[in-house]
């Protein structure tokens, strides 16, 4: 992590710094498009005709979460790199605060959705009425394993994995095997922990920006926030590696992109603190 951060600091004063950040934002936008398509494709398996408006919102919570984080990243970038100590005007500061609160609420909603999904899948699950997947053919149900959905039809039921027992995924017209249920529970834990870690990281970054804006560049609070953020980065990276272990490499790629984006914010904060320290030193020497 130290070498990674040092490499970014080496680019900080160079002309490539802005272009690299622009490329990062472009990649994050591309990732948003991927998640939007993924959320949309999943609805054909996980929602029925009786689904409510909120059911649709829940299915698109990943896309909404991406929008919220992209908004926060842009605001944090402005506050730590463009504005620094000049800050927002009072009227604009109120607008920015409102936008931040909406973004954090969207992320909080994602945490709530993931927590609800976790408690549902960890709770009692019903055994499927069918002892064979072909018994469920053309009933609108789907097979799920490792986040991969397949509609159960007379053509697909014979080629899908056979198991002695099938289980219904709570709240979805979906069945899986005992191994699939166990994996779904572990991935649900990953979803919840990842969202909680990112929400904590966002709150920590907001706290770091606020105390820096007050002229605090060192001390217990700065050190504690630094170690807290380092621990959260490590947890998020570990979860990304876990996703990749089960073949979800795009999730690891997404984690790396966002960690890279926050690494720029950390460098911005270091530069801002250095400016404040230099100003204080100049005032003392004059």
Order of secondary-structure elements = HHHHHEEEEHHH
Low-confidence segments: none
Label the overall shape: elongated
Radius of gyration: 23 Å
Largest sheet: 4 strands, mixed
Class from helix and strand fractions: mainly alpha
Strand content: under 5%
Task: Provide the helix percentage.
Answer: over 70%
Task: Provide the domain count.
Answer: 1
- Number of continuous helical runs: 8
Question: What kind of oligomer do you see?
Answer: single chain
The number of strands is: 4
- Distance between the terminal alpha carbons, to the nearest Å? 38 Å
Looking across the biggest beta sheet, what order are the strands in?
2-1-4-3
Mean pLDDT: 85
Question: What this model shows, in words?
Answer:
Strands 2-1-4-3 form a 4-stranded mixed sheet, with helices on one face. Helix 4 (61-83) runs parallel beside helix 6 (178-213) and helix 6 runs antiparallel to helix 7. The longest helix is centred in the C-terminal third of the chain and has 37 residues, at 249-285. By secondary structure, it is mainly alpha-helical. The two termini are 38 Å apart. The chain is 71% helix and 5% strand. The chain has one domain (2-125, 178-285).
């Amino acid at each position: 992590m130290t070498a990674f951060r040092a490499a970014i600091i080496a680019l900080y004063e160079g002309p490539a710094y802005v272009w690299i950040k622009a490329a990062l934002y472009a990649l994050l936008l591309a990732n948003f498009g991927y998640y939007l398509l993924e959320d949309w494709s999943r609805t054909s398996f996980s929602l029925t005709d009786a689904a409510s408006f909120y059911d649709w919102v829940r299915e698109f919570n990943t896309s909404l979460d991406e929008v919220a984080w992209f908004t926060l990243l842009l605001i944090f970038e402005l506050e730590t790199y463009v504005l620094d100590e000049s800050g927002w005007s009072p009227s604009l500061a109120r607008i920015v605060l409102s936008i931040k609160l909406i973004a954090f609420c969207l992320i909080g909603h994602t945490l709530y959705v993931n927590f609800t999904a976790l408690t549902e899948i960890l709770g009692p699950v019903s055994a499927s009425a069918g002892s064979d997947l072909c018994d469920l053919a053309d009933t609108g149900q789907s097979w799920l394993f490792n986040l991969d959905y397949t509609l159960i039809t007379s053509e697909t039921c014979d080629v899908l994995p056979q198991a002695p027992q099938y289980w219904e995924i709570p709240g979805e017209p979906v069945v899986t095997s005992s191994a699939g249920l166990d994996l779904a529970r572990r991935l649900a834990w990953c979803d919840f922990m990842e969202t909680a870690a990112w929400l904590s990281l966002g709150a920590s970054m907001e706290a770091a920006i606020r105390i820096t804006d007050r002229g605090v560049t060192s001390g217990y609070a700065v050190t504690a926030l630094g170690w807290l953020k380092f621990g959260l980065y490590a947890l998020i990276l570990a979860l990304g590696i876990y996703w990749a272990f089960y073949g979800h490499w795009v999730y690891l790629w997404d984690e790396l992109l966002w960690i890279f984006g926050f690494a720029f914010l950390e460098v911005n904060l270091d530069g801002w603190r250095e400016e404040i320290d230099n100003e204080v030193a100049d005032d003392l020497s004059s």
